[in-house]
Amino acid sequence: MINQLKQAVQEIYNQFDASHDFQHIERVFQNAESILETEPEADREIVQIAVLLHDVSDKKYTDSKENEDALLNSLTLSDAKKRHIKEIIESVSFNGGNEVAAKSIEAKIVRDADRLDAIGAVGVARTFAYGGAKGRKLYDDAEEVRIHMSEEEYRSKSTASVTHFYEKLLLLKDLMTTEKGKQMAEERHAFMESFLDQLKAEREGRA
User: Fold this and answer.
1) How far apart are CA 106 and CA 16, in angstroms?
2) At what angle do helices 66-73 and 79-90 cross, to 10 degrees?
3) Domain HD/PDEase spans what residues (predicted)?
4) What was the pLDDT predicted at 85?
5) How far is CA 135 from CA 16, 130, 164, in A?
6) What's the CATH architecture for 2-203?
7) In Å, how far are 51, 54, 94, 120, 176 from 110, measured between CA atoms?
8) pTM > 0.85: yes or no
9) Which residues in the chain come in under a pLDDT of 50?
10) By CB atoms within 10 Å of each CB, which of 34, 49, 75, 183 scores lowest?
């Protein structure tokens, strides 16, 4: 079932830009597997399915839950498991700090696995890939970093890519919910800080 679902979702994700293509899903899947090794009580199949489906109806690309619902309904799972998967997916998004609580261990694993792919070297690459696809500036020193905002405010303003680090990505390390996720986030967070320092030095003529 997992292999069939991978094939089905690949066609959807490869329509998105490089920040949310199928390679993103493969990396999140790998992150989730690493965390699952330290969380034996978690339902591996539920985690895997939620990872594969978590972005098929991403609000950045569609206003509809059609893909998510159609793919979930195609699976031979109980209604309880389908509800659980939908709850996991709902809790993944940052939403400008207005996130839905991750109540189950499966939700915590999927959320950490996804957020790990938003930070570190891959996170840097994805940020600028998305910014480029949306025609955003690399940086804007005059832009005010927003700390408290609604989901609508978070999604409606096209901020510069560097601003996104301060509004979301640098916050994720301290929002990890599993011990493995916290450990994996440390090095990736440090890399982002180093990258931003180097970027600032170069554009100010200090390096």
Assistant:
1) 26
2) 150
3) 17-128
4) 97
5) 15, 9, 14
6) Orthogonal Bundle (1.10)
7) 6, 9, 13, 17, 11
8) yes
9) none
10) 183
